[in-house]
């Protein structure tokens, strides 16, 4: 049995069972009810063999345009004067409201600009932009033309940006002159972009730059650099005729890079029709958001959260989306999020637990919260990393004013101010949540299933999630489990999704079908491997524990330890190194470098400083590498075949941290973490343990 969701009569659980009984019927109903198709699909799914099961294509004969569904149809339905986008930017002192009519006009205009430069169906447009409405305009203009956009997070340094540019070779790049960390801290984007082109050895046909008031720069026409405002002004009179290009359901809507287990980012390809269906389904039923209501998803467009629920989800739903250009604290204070909730009557809010951690640290008594009326809010959802029960309880108490005792392991939020404040779990690959507590199935908060602290909710309808037993002998490396076995309830295992994957999931990796298969489907035949470990308990609640691979979440941002390792290894003083991660009270996890120096004569403090600088400049400030976390050792633990035992090191760090948190003793001569049978030298294991004990137990 893959799950135990059988003890509840809630509407969410009933929908789950319906979706499991006949997934094709379930998703076909959603597709026909939620989306306007140019050609309505007659089939839910392509016919597949066991060998092609991972290549599921939903609604294969349907044809549509996502931009039409996100804007035009709402204008035709009389929502033209409704606000589609609220741009709230405390760092520039701006609040701008854009109606669906205005958004349509701007999108048509930019689509005209793109067309002028030869962008059409299937062409790639790369965006390197701040949280400004123009970013959304470019994304939608691409969708209108059937072009494929790829938004790269502005916090990435040129080397990381260059990897993405070389991989997708965009026809056009759109950027802005700067991002703003605060009112005074301006980050110039153009030099970063130029350096990335240099490193990639590739220049797009055209670069379009939005001149922001905070930084105006000289553009070089000889390098085909064009100014946003001039292009838009020229295109305006011609834009009336830019229609929506109808595409096949499985034509890519966008491509989003994410970190995998190697230094090369993965280009997640998202199909138009299935993604639109999955987003709208989650918008209505999971988040309970109605057309005309407002959602605020606190995420950059460069992350999946931003693509799915700042951009497409709310607009497909005819709702209003808030773009916030600021920080939880410091722009200028810890009251900004509550102000936005109140001022724009936000119904639903999504953020990473890090945001709550930062708020709690700065304003533990919720004094800023107390200034605002939040009675209109329906749901606050957390995702991106594990949310500890302590933080979750604080968030519920702060928002609702109700004190939650640490003895409460579950809680109904329905009788409170909001219907739910819950954790939910998803990945860039899934594009929308796989677990959670739905509020859209119920007309009253009291029908919503209870929250369980430490859990990311129930398995969502349409997603056949299971836990596979971990087999010690297959634990290190890329072993294939020929006979996967289901774990018992509460047994920690690898979380997988039974194939075929539901609509909206990744359909391939950009130009890398082979890596697509080996990354996700090779280990467990017939299942998608999420790369997360966890449990499903006896009541069907899913608990996500950690990654099984080398991916880390730093302040909910996904980074590959390999890409940091690559950078560290390039320093001339480094003989060998590995990067793992350790818990951090604010950011969830942060990287830790273990390095053996090459030869003598290096001053450790100097090398440490240089490594930190290097990591910041090559990966970006988001790398969060701190001096304490650069550790010099004589040798690293390895297998007999020379593989560094990263997982063992990480487990040792976690063991010391766990003991510290629980006030338990740690013994330098007794390592509680086992070693694989293939370890080369047990003495190195003990040395490593002692280094870690010394480092973290003080
Ligand atoms: P990303 O692709 O950046 O969205 O990262 C996906 C990964 O973030 C997942 O595979 C998990 O490891 C982690 N993650 C996302 N949401 C949660 C959650 N609610 N609880 C625990 N981990 C999460």
Report the CATH C-level class of the domain at 86-272.
Answer: Alpha Beta
Biggest sheet descriptor: 7 strands, mixed
Radius of gyration: 25 Å
Query: Quick one: overall form?
Result: globular
Task: Describe this protein's structure.
This protein is α/β, with parallel strands linked by helices. It is built from 18 helices and 32 strands. The chain is globular and about 75 Å long. The two termini are 45 Å apart.
List keywords for this structure.
698 residues; alpha/beta; Luciferase, domain 3; Rossmann fold; GMP Synthetase, Chain A, domain 3; 5-stranded parallel β-sheet; 32 strands; 21% strand; globular; binds adenosine monophosphate
Quick description:
The protein has 18 helices and 32 strands.
List the helices and strands and how they pair.
Elements: H1 11-21, H2 23-34, E1 63-64, H3 66-79, E2 83-89, E3 94-99, H4 100-116, E4 124-128, H5 133-145, E5 148-151, H6 158-168, E6 172-176, E7 178-180, E8 186-188, H7 190-200, E9 206-210, E10 225-227, H8 228-235, E11 247-248, E12 252-258, E13 266-271, H9 272-286, E14 294-297, H10 304-316, E15 320-324, H11 336-343, E16 346-351, H12 353-362, E17 379-382, H13 389-400, E18 410-411, E19 420-423, E20 435-436, E21 451-452, E22 458-459, E23 465-469, E24 493-498, E25 508-509, H14 513-520, E26 527-536, E27 542-547, E28 551-554, E29 557-560, H15 561-569, E30 574-584, E31 588-597, H16 604-618, E32 630-632, H17 646-661, H18 682-696
Parallel strand pairs: 2-15, 4-5, 4-6, 6-9, 9-10, 14-15, 14-16, 16-17, 17-19, 31-32
Antiparallel strand pairs: 1-11, 2-3, 7-8, 12-13, 13-25, 18-21, 20-22, 23-24, 24-26, 26-27, 28-29, 30-31
Helix pairs in contact: 1-2, 2-9, 3-4, 3-5, 3-10, 4-5, 4-8, 6-7, 9-10, 12-13, 17-18
């Amino acid at each position: 049995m893959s799950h135990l969701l059988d003890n509840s009569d809630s509407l969410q659980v009933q929908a789950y069972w319906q979706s499991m009984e006949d997934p094709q019927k379930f998703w076909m109903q959603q597709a026909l009810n939620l989306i306007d198709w140019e050609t309505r699909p007659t089939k839910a799914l392509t016919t597949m063999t066991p060998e092609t099961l991972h290549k599921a294509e939903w609604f294969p004969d349907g044809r549509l345009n996502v931009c039409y569904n996100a804007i035009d149809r709402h204008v035709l339905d009389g929502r033209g004067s409704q606000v589609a986008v609220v741009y709230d930017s405390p760092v520039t002192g701006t609040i701008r409201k854009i109606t669906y009519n205005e958004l349509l006009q701007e999108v048509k205009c930019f689509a005209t600009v793109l067309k002028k430069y030869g962008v059409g169906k299937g062409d790639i447009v790369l965006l390197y932009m701040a949280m400004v409405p123009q970013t959304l305009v470019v994304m939608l203009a691409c969708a209108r033309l059937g072009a494929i956009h790829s938004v790269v997070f502005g916090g990435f340094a040129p080397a990381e940006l260059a990897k993405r540019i070389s991989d997708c070779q965009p026809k056009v790049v759109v950027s802005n002159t700067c991002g703003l960390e605060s009112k005074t801290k301006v980050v110039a984007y153009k030099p970063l972009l130029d350096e990335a082109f240099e490193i990639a050895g590739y220049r797009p046909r055209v670069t379009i730059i939005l001149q922001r008031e905070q930084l105006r720069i000289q553009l070089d026409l000889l390098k085909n650099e064009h100014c946003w405002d001039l292009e838009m002004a020229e295109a305006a009179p011609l834009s009336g005729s830019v229609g929506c290009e109808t595409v096949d359901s499985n034509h890519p809507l966008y491509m989003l890079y994410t970190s995998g287990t190697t230094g090369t980012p993965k280009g997640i390809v998202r199909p138009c029709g299935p993604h639109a269906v999955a987003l709208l389904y989650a918008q209505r039923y999971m988040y309970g958001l109605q057309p005309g209501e407002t959602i605020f998803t606190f995420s950059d467009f460069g992350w999946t959260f931003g693509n799915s629920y700042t951009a497409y989800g709310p607009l497909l739903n005819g709702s209003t989306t808030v773009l916030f250009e600021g920080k939880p604290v410091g722009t200028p204070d810890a009251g900004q999020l509550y102000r936005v909730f109140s001022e724009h009557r936000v119904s639903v809010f999504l953020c990473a637990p890090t945001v709550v951690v930062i708020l709690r640290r700065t304003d533990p008594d919720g004094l800023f919260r107390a200034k605002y009326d939040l009675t209109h809010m329906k749901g606050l959802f957390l995702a991106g990393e594990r949310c500890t029960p302590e933080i979750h309880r604080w968030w519920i108490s702060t928002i609702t004013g109700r004190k939650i005792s640490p003895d409460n392991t579950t809680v109904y939020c329905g009788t409170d101010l909001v219907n739910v404040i819950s954790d939910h779990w998803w990945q860039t690959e899934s594009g929308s949540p796989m677990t959670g507590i739905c509020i859209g199935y119920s007309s009253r908060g009291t029908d919503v299933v209870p929250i369980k602290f430490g859990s990311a909710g129930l398995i969502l309808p349409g997603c056949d999630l299971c836990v596979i037993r971990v087999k010690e002998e297959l634990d290190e490396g890329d072993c294939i489990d020929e006979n996967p076995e289901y774990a018992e309830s509460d047994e920690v295992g690898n979380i997988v999704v039974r194939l075929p994957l539901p609509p909206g999931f990744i359909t391939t990796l950009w130009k890398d079908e082979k890596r697509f298969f080996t990354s996700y489907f090779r280990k467990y035949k017939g299942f998608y491997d999420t790369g997360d470990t966890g449990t499903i308990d006896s009541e069907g609640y899913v608990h996500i524990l950690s990654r099984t691979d080398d991916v880390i979440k730093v302040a909910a941002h996904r980074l590959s330890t390999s890409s940091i390792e690559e950078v560290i290894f390039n320093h001339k003083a480094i003989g060998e190194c590995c990067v793992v991660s350790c818990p951090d009270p604010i950011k969830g996890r942060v990287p830790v470098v273990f390095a053996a120096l090459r030869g003598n004569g290096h001053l450790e403090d100097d090398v440490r400083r240089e490594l930190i600088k290097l990591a910041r400049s090559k990966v970006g400030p988001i790398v969060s590498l701190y001096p304490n976390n650069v550790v010099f050792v004589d040798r690293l633990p390895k297998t007999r075949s020379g593989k560094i035992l990263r997982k063992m090191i990480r487990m040792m760090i976690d063991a010391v941290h766990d003991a510290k948190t629980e006030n338990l003793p740690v013994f330098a001569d007794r390592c509680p973490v086992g070693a694989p049978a293939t370890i080369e030298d047990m003495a190195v294991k003990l040395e490593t343990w002692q280094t870690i004990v010394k480092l973290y137990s003080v």
